[in-house]
Amino acid sequence: MSKQRVAVITGASSGIGRATALRFADDGWSVVLASRRGDALEELADECRARGGSALAVPTDVADENAVESLALAAVERFNRIDVWVNNAAVSVFSPFLDMPMDDFRRVIDVNVMGYVYGSRAALEVMTRQEKGVLINVASIVGEVPQPYTAPYGMSKAAVRALSVSLRQELWLQGLKKVRVCTVLPATIDTPFFRHSANYTGRKVVAMPPVYPADQVAVAIRDLAKAPADEVIVGGAGKMMVRQHRVTPGPVELQMAVQVEKTHLSREEQAEDTTAAIYEPFADPSDPDIGGGWEGRKRKNRRRLLTWTAALAGGAVLASKTLGGKSGLLAGTAAAKALKQKARSR
């Protein structure tokens, strides 16, 4: 029986999943790596071993319930337990709602919702027997503030948050205080995710700034494994957006729509319709492993943070006038001050 702690990570072959696996390996964990790309998993397993961790690669499509059950079984057979399970694998499609192929819509829900359901069941069946463990569900700030052209993705991330809350309630009722369920809400993260998304907009999908490194999410996940918390937001702009949305939802939602139209879909580069990697993984060896090449300079991110500050504050003022009250204005002013302070400190 291994004395190392054991983490299962889905979507491990690239982006957040890969960065998370390496963080755990650096800390000497045993990692069970899952994604559809077996070759990429084996390469990552070798890198994790070189960093001091043990590793097991298990090719898995999380939309397949039997495959996820087999993943959990493989982890237990190899390492005898599961200390942390990270539900991270996800796909997306960009398209006007009326143009979106329903098969693609269903595929996003199958992977992002049912994949998390299967993973949560597999993890909690082991953890409830152990009477300890941490389940970490990677959602998104769009689970709080959805955006246009990605309806199924926003729906799926809202569902992930609801799933985590429901599971926490059940575990509390069962008295399983050492089995924890955490949710991570990243802002825009520098990964290959946007190139892997299906696209029917006619415009190239690019990362909406400010963009944060995948390792920032990996550190948050590693920290949750050590000190579980119900919900963590990663990225300063995301934190302010979520907080302000709870005060003045309408203006924030409109600003999200404006930012998506301005910065998430390229105005210079067109794109042909594609299902990209939502059904089959990319086989391009030149595709980046963790970063997607989106992260701009900190100065650029500061400017974008200040843009969001002005937008959120302006939206709060509008809401205050519309509602005839001061709460929106006060919240907007506070948001502006806090976000400017954060922007200057970066």
Q: How would you describe the shape?
A: globular
- The CATH topology of the domain at 6-235 and 269-278 is Rossmann fold
CATH architecture name of the domain at 6-235 and 269-278: 3-Layer(aba) Sandwich
Spatially, the strands of the biggest sheet line up as: 3-2-1-4-6-7-12
Low-confidence stretches: 296-302, 319-340, 342-346
Question: How far apart are the first and last residues' alpha carbons, in Å?
Answer: 45 Å
**What's the rounded overall pLDDT mean?**
88
> Treating each run of at least 4 consecutive H or I residues as one helix, how many helices?
11
The major beta sheet can be summarized as: 7 strands, parallel
Total strand segments: 13
CATH superfamily of the domain at 6-235 and 269-278: NAD(P)-binding Rossmann-like Domain
Strand content: 15-25%
* Helix-strand string: EHEHEHEEHEHEEHEEEHEHHEHH
- The residue fraction in helices comes out at 40-55%
The chain-level structural class is alpha/beta
Instruction: Supply the CATH class of the domain at 6-235 and 269-278.
Output: Alpha Beta
Rg estimate, integer Å? 20 Å
